[in-house]
Amino acid sequence: MNKFFIVGFSMLMIFDTLSQICFKLTANEALPLEMNLEWLGRVFGHIWIYGALLGYAGAFFTWMKVLNRLSIGSSYAASHIDVVSVMILSIWIFEEPLTIPKAVGALIILSGIICLAIAEEKDSNPTSTNSNTTNPDSHTTNLNAH
Questions:
Q1: How many Cα atoms occupy the beta-carbon half-sphere of 73 within 13 Å?
Q2: Residue 19 forms part of a structural domain
Q3: I need a surface site. Which of 19, 80, 81, 84 has the fewest CB within 10 A?
């Protein structure tokens, strides 16, 4: 598997997960939700909001680098691995329940990401060629010659 793929998406997962967990911690600390300056003071008075902003900045720059090197289809799907990492950390940090639908969904997400990673590698390292275009001894018929 491509080393860049593994490192890039690991960093993206870490930054995205940091953002989501920090936003949840900030939301818990800034309650009740009110659209006023006092609420904004509570939000920006907690260190967690700065972790969330740092996570978003790191995710943005990592995402730009990933998109420069890999196809957007595979990249977009693989970039959502943080759904699984946030779910796992939420079970531990926030004592959220792990249900069968959550576990099955996480396995489906991981399976899809693995399939796309394999496809990305095959697309970037083609090992087979079309024998009709590279083999002069192939028995193809030129329809325009008749």
A1: 8
A2: yes
A3: 80
